[in-house]
Amino acid sequence: MNYMLLIYGNENRPQTEAEVQAEMQGYNQFTEEVRTKGILVAGEALHPTSTATTVRMREGKRLNTDGPFAETKEQLGGFYILNCKDLDEAISYAAKIPGAATGCVEVRPIVVWE
Length: 114
Prior knowledge:
This protein is of the alpha+beta class. The chain contains two helices and six strands. The radius of gyration is 16 Å and the shape is flat.
């Protein structure tokens, strides 16, 4: 089953250049692990929430709002989609994502429409 691992963190968290490099090395290692095991379906980083646009339809009219849907302490920063045998395996991989150390990773199964 495919699981989406949504990575949330504080995009304004102060980091030194060395901390950024260490975190990126962790992401590169994680990506290589899931790619090598053949379970990586997709994964991408996202631009900051300042680049987001939220779209709503109300009474047949489109309403665009700059920024994310909600003001929160943590922002969606990226995602992985992994093909795991079960939720336990997906959770074990989520714990390996570097963002889990300072933010959180939400694990959600992807619906298969039949």
